[in-house]
Design goal:
Keywords: DNA-binding, Transcription, Transcription regulation. It is built from 17 helices and 12 strands. With about 400 residues, the protein is α/β, with parallel strands linked by helices. It has 3 domains: about 130 residues, 3-Layer(aba) Sandwich (Rossmann fold), CATH 3.40.50; about 140 residues, Rossmann fold (3-Layer(aba) Sandwich); about 100 residues, Homeodomain-like (Arc Repressor Mutant, subunit A). A 6-stranded parallel β-sheet has the order 2-1-3-4-5-11, sandwiched between helices. Strands 7-6-8-9-10-12 form a 6-stranded mixed β-sheet, with helices on both faces. Helix 8 links the parallel strand 8 and strand 9. The protein is globular.
Amino acid sequence: MAKNYRVALLLNANMAYDRGIITGISSFVKNGAPWSLFIGEQNLFSVDDFSKWQGDGVIADFDHPEIRDAIKSRNIPVVGIASSETVANTMQDYPVVMSDNKQIINMAARFLKMRRYTHLAFCGYPNRPFNDWSANREQLLRDWCERNQCAYSQFSAKDNIDTWDSDLQCLVDWLSRLPKPVGIIAANDVRARQLSYACQQAKINIPEEVSIMGIDDDELNCTLSLPTLTSVRQGTRAMGYLTASLLQPLMDGKNLVKRHHFVQPERVIGRDSTDFFHFKDNLVRGALSLIRINQGNIKVKQILAELGCSRGAIDNKFHEELGMSLHAYLLDTQLNLALELLVDTEQTLSEIAKVVGFSSPQYLSCAIKKRWNMTPGMLREQKGVTNRELAPLIEDTEELIEQA
């Protein structure tokens, strides 16, 4: 009889980020891994629980110093989750799966730049040991702005601020001083929601004056905020699946060559907090507004009729502002929406084709295959374990096992 492995999850299932990782671990188990998972009471496996726990392997959140210390005190196979290389480097004896913060920031910054923001800002947390990931993302955005000739600002959170009212006043003061318009990337969705509230207090319009993006795509925080928050969806399910696939050979007594593993973000989930385009040309703004209102389900000829212009005139303006034709932009919008529906829903291809404005599922299938070199069925099979470019996120662990 095959052995049943007892695996502890030192994660906080009350947090959306951790729940995504746990979902990925669950997918690995559902694919046939003989595991029993332990997560503790109240969806939180405490350090005290772990000190007494007897099992075969652990998947742990290395962002917490007390968890790192507890792990070092036990001789047991462990794979860690980390939000930055700084944290991962403190646990060099363990395989670590982490968010690719550089790609997260690049994706968010490009999204705002496409809306013609020339001034970007970052809002993070005080520079404390457990906030290394926030400082890392701040530096990455600063570097991106320097490379791309964008003006840059940052919120310098004070270490001695320990109440929400004090922090809120600091945010209001900072937002009031910022040149407008500005696109702000928050360290995570919680910070983005706090920013949104601070804008309300300062009577600053979102998104006309300030556009806000979060990171994590925590549905609760993103949809409870008014306006709803745009966010970068991390590849948390892929991270969970990868950690599980790395832990299995460790529990089987094998060693892994590679220690650090980066998982790219999936995509930007656009919502109301960035629903504004700072383009100079009225035709471009009008066309983008029509595409947004119709969620991509509109024809080029309908846009031309609505705006009362020629195809050549609007294409010239689109090339000047966006570097592509109106048709290319519309197709890109439709395909990205189709991808989202394929990955996140159970709708049929025929239903998706109708939603995004394709005349037939066959035409949509051909367009998808041309864009990503995969059929719609292949994309759906990879649900939850692909990034936006659809490159494999789950590495072949056989290549990572040391040869005896």
